[in-house]
Each structure stands twice: as structure tokens, then as C-alpha cells.
Specification:
Radius of gyration: 32 Å
Number of helices: 15
CATH class of the largest domain: Alpha Beta
Distance between the termini: 79 Å
Structural class: alpha+beta
Mean pLDDT: 83
CATH architecture of the largest domain: 2-Layer Sandwich
Strand content: 15-25%
Helix content: 25-40%
Oligomer: single chain
Amino acid sequence: MTLDISKVTIPPHPGIYIMKDSDDKILYIGKAKNLKNRVKSYFLRNQNYKTQKLVEKIHDVEFVLTDNEEEAFLLEANMIKRYRPPYNIELKDQQRYTYLRITNEQYPRLMVARRTRTGEFLGGGKVYGPFTRGSSKMLSIGLLRKTFKIRICKKLPKEACLEYHIGNCEAPCQFKQAQVNYGKNISELESILKGKQRLGDFVNKLDKEMKQASNNRQYERAKEIHETLQRLSSLQIKQNMETPRVGSDEEYFGIKIKDQTAYLMSFRLSNGVIKDRNKFSFDLVGDNSFSSFLSQYYSTNPIPKYVIVSEIPEKKDILEEVFSRASGFKVNITVPMSGKRREIVDLIMRNISLTISKGADPALIELQEKLGLENIPKTIECFDISNHGEDYAVGSMSCLVDGKPHKSGYRKFKIKTVKGRDDFAMIKEIVKRRYLRLKEEKTEMPDLVLIDGGRGQLNAALDALHSVGVKVPCVSLAKENEEVYHSKANKPLVMPKNNPALKILQHARDEAHRFGVAYNRAIRKFT
């Protein structure tokens, strides 16, 4: 039973609201400048489907007042981290990263670095990473421990253990020479992790040791080194030591909304180089927004000096103030209009489109974006007129599916109603005939209709589509300058000659032209 919000006393002040179900479990936590206005808005009509489902489960609402909206931002982030409500944004990064820690003991150990929800590392010692092959972290740690003879015992034993006898440790617990070697081994391991010694150099060193062992007929030792080299080939080390909570130079975010779900991607840059990429998504329920996402994200991640975004989030000024206070330096949130930053944002947006489209051809995705199409143009039908004097004129249609010719979908047309050389009228005739038939047969329409020609040919095709009551996106491609004419734009779209999206249109146009010329020749041959 839905909560009767009219019976709930709601303060008209800034703060957070906590929505609970009948079992007193927290469903959602949100913030507001005016709690009364915000909470009542949930119970209005015309909410999206997922918000309606949330409202149906609400049995009680609690409030926590704050002095201002800025404090509400901070409190909301902390409460969400603590309770993890099912309807709030949960930052489940789709790519995991591993951090390694060398302890500060007398004989240090190598371990996985564990983190708290606030992003701080547990335990003492030095932390290295992130390592991009998170799924192989235990293999990597085991390999490094074995290679550098690092002990694994929690407490130093009084005498050599099994690890010594199987060759994984030199037993600094018992032998003086092992104690001397242990320090050298740790230094060499740190040198690899810090990047002072290149991983490739270390691999070459092992390779020489393997060949030498083989020449000395130490085949077990050679086999052991060979296995180590095989494992090292899959170990990718990001050779930077992380300083927790110190921001990188820049981090970029792109966001797209589809079907009540927000899709985001981030690129982290340091010294102009992309160092990290993450993907996220969340449902548009309640106050879930780009702004609340950023608030949650930077409550557990290092804050950069510049947050570059595809669109300005709500409460930008408050976010900047909160991030600046938390990081200790001025943080700027901005949307780039041009230059390298704009190019990176555009790249992120293309990657998001690729994610949403589940692996469609990137050129088709770019074509969708450039033409402002609702759907990816997986099926494109292109029309052309082939004239030879006034007596021989035919129409042709090529068909591309997923950017490739679909020969069984090609069609040819004899011109029936037009006399003389009138390309506009001929285009109108064949387009009308094609889509009137598809409509009568209740056959699926293409995602895009392409016409060979300029504005005049496009208008003729649009008239034909309108006359048969068919709504299909339609553009034309003028051959002289490869300009794309669109009904929604006054000026033609001009793409670079090497643009993959343009090449798809050219391919469809060239196929229609080739098919039409062949049909025209065949008619003239037999008449």
C-alpha cells in the first residue's frame, strides 16, 4: 500500500530524506534544498516507471536536517556509502584494478592492498598500482613472491619452512646470507614496481639465466624460469606509485540517457596521457542524476584539479566547493567547446554509444549521431536513377545491412509514369512505389533511406514518403562535393573524405549506381 504523503509532516528545509519499506529497510536516500517540495514531488502523477515502483514500496520517510545544501551533499554521500540502498547509484566499476602493498616489517611481505569505502589503504607500508589485470592478481602476486623469494608467513618462524624447501623463499628466518639477499630482492622488486627498472629489462635478465641454466644442464631451473617468463608476459604493470587522495591532472566524464538509464564513462588523464577508463550506469530514480553520481564517485576516488564533462551537472558550484574543500585545492568542472579536451569528450561519447549499441559498427554509430537518427542505421536503402538519353531510364536500389551489401535486398525499377529526363519525378516515382508496397505488405522499414543527389532529389523523395504516409529518415548524398543533405538542416553536412560514416553512404550510393547502370545496359541490349 502506497504511503499517504499528505499525512506526513515534512520540513521545508535543506537536508536528506530516507525512504524505507514495510520491513524498515532503506530503499533510497536523497538530498534536497527544500525537503517538503522534493519529497512530495515523488507522489505526483506522470512519474517514470522505475520511480513509480519505488513509490509503491515506500512505507515511511525519515528526515535529517542540515544547515545548507552543501552539507546535505556530503551527508547524502556518506549515508549512501554506509547503507547502500538498492535504488541509489551503486558504483560497480566494470573493470577491477589491483593495488599491491609492500609491508614495513623487518623482512617485508608482498600483499594485495585492501581499501576502505573512503578510498584509504589499510595497513602500513608502500602501495603500488593500479595493476590493470585485476583478474590475475593472485597469479601476479604469487609470481612476484616466487621470483623475488618473498616470504608469505604472517609471523617469522624459528626455522626454515616448506617454502624454503620448495625453492620459494631463502629463509631469512634462519640463514644470514638469506637476510642479506632479502634486502636486495625487496629493492629489486620495488625498482620494478616504481618503474625505475623496466619490466622488459628484467625479462631479458631472466631469459639469459634460463639459457645459462639450460647450457649447464640445470633443466629444472631452466623450466622454472621458463614458466616465470610465460607468466610475466601476462603481467601488465602500471609503473606509478599511487598517492591516495591526491588528484591527477584531469578526469573526463561523458553521459548519455536511454530508456530511463544513465550510461557514463570516465577517462583519467595525467600529464596528458589517459591512465584509466571506467564504465558506469544507474537508473533514473528519485534524485539519481549526473550531479549525485559525481558526488558519490569522488567520495571514494582521488579528486583531480579539472573535471571535464560532456554536460554541466546540476549544482555545479556546490560540487566544486565540496570537491575543493575535500582535496585541498581548487577544483573546476567544465564543458570544453573545442580543442583536445573536446576531442577526448567526443571520444568518450562514441565509446558510450558503442556500449549502448552492444557492439554495433562504430561507423554506423557515428552516422547515427551525425544525422541525429533515433536508431542505428543497420539497414540502409539507397536509390539512384540511371539515364541513357531520353528513351532509356531506370531506377535502382541498393541495400546495406550492418554496413555491408545485402544483394538479395537490391531492387530495380522500370520508370512507368515519367516521360523525358526528369530525375526528380523519377525519384519520387520509385520511392513511392517501394514504400507503398512495404506498407501494404506490412514489411519492416529500413532505418535510413539514402538518395543519390542534392536538395532537389531529397525533396522529391520526402514528398513520396509523405504521400504514402511512411515516416523513415531520409537524406541525400551529392556526388560533386560529397555533401549530405538532411531535411532538418538548412546547410548540407560535410564530412572529411576519410570519415568512416561517409564511406558507408558512399558505398551504398556506388552500389546503387553500379546496379542501375548494369540494368540500363541490359535493357538497351535486348531492345
